[in-house]
Design goal:
The chain is α/β, with parallel strands linked by helices. It has six helices and four strands; from the N terminus they run βαβαβαβααα.
């Protein structure tokens, strides 16, 4: 695993918010060590406008982010996946495709930021989700992948998924 970036697929049902934010976070912070993708079991077909607005405020590159089906990652010629992380309970309970290569799986459940509310409430929901994802992604990308066997890595991934820390970053938080 250590000779190339670790490929991680983030799954949500709609692939319009949480999984998109996770993909962007990983690819901005750790692309040399970890490469992220996102998908959904029932993709919305668009990235939620607040997800794009948040990433734009934080100066993330949003080019190429799109809502897509997990079916894109099932064929043998798809990127080889090392880890598949579900971010919503619905995706975690669904029968996932058989991924080529048998990647490790873990659940990082968190509330859906796509809520009915005022624009301010929606923005706050997305900011809260982003903070939690940022904290978990930081833990993920700092793992010593080359020193962990499959069982140890699975255990660490599950521990990260239980983390409720919203570790702040003042510089970024000012724009959330």
């Amino acid at each position: 695993m250590a000779k190339r970036p670790i490929n991680v697929l983030f799954l949500c049902t709609g692939n319009s918010a949480r999984s998109i934010l996770a993909e962007a976070l990983v690819n901005r912070s750790a692309r040399r060590r970890v490469r992220a993708y996102s998908a959904g079991s029932d993709p919305k077909g668009f990235v939620h406008p607040e997800a794009l607005a948040l990433l734009t405020r934080l100066r993330f590159d949003t080019k190429g982010l799109r809502s897509k089906s997990w079916d894109e990652f099932a064929p043998a010629d798809a990127p080889s996946l090392d880890v598949v992380l579900t971010l919503c309970d619905e995706a975690a309970e669904e029968t996932c495709p058989v991924w080529p290569g048998g990647p490790l799986t873990a659940h990082w459940g968190m509330a859906d930021p796509v809520i009915d509310g005022t624009p301010q409430e929606i923005r706050q929901a997305f900011a809260s989700t982003f903070r939690l994802l940022r904290s978990r992604v930081s833990e993920l990308t700092s793992l010593p992948f080359s020193k962990l066997d499959g069982a140890s890595l699975r255990h660490r991934l599950r521990e990260i998924g239980l983390s409720r820390s919203n570790g702040g970053d003042g510089a970024l938080d000012a724009h959330l």
